[in-house]
Amino acid sequence: MKSPICILSFLLATSLQAADPTMVFIPRGEFLRGRSHALPDDGLQWYPEVMKDDRPVKKIHVAPFYMDRTEVTNAGYARFIAATKHRPPYHWPNGQPPPDKLHHPVANVSWDDAAAYAKWAGKRLPTEAEWERACRGLREGATYSWGESKPTPKLARFGTVTGPQDSARCPANDFGLHDIAGNVWEWTQDWYDRDYYAVSPNTNPQGPPTGRYRVLRGGSWADVPKYLTCAYRSWARPAERSPNIGFRCVKSVNTK
User: Fold this and answer.
1) Going by CATH, does the domain composed of 4-252 fall within 3.30.1490.110?
2) What does the mean pLDDT of the chain come to?
């Protein structure tokens, strides 16, 4: 449900323009982080502990920031490669993105690759809290970034064996973000800890100080609908490079 406060925040946000037109402004605000919808296993005695990592639901405050409208594309990542001589994704022929897939989200990039790109671009990776705030848009407590309706191919790229598609082919959410669900998983800044929600600060949480895995969000072209929700948390080793993992960047707002 879109609350009056959320709508006011959105109207204020649309009056601000990012210096980079490829980014959108995400206003400061509070939101309920975590899974408020039920899962079929909720009532089982042996309910898997790992599936409790998106609870408890808690009100979180985040500062304003800018976020990329789309996941970083092959074309954008190729410019980074050309400028820095960073290693390209291993599936690119001769180190170059396939010409017919320039507008696909880049994949087969590790967390370190994504962080290096973000630094080169003058940005950074989003915290997990920032990512969920941006994904939810104005839809407090909703299951998906677009609301409660079940995912369809028109709403998100998922459930296929043919890989990602061009960015921004699916509708944007309330903040103007495309493919925040589906297409490719997105690296976040945070280390993963399944119990972190219970102990995290309520304001601008940055994730645990250390860990073994980094948090992934948003689901991908290869996944079923339950992974596309606003609250679902996944993780991977920072060195992992997978055909269904990519990223998008954020930039802090100077509030002075």
Assistant:
1) no
2) 91
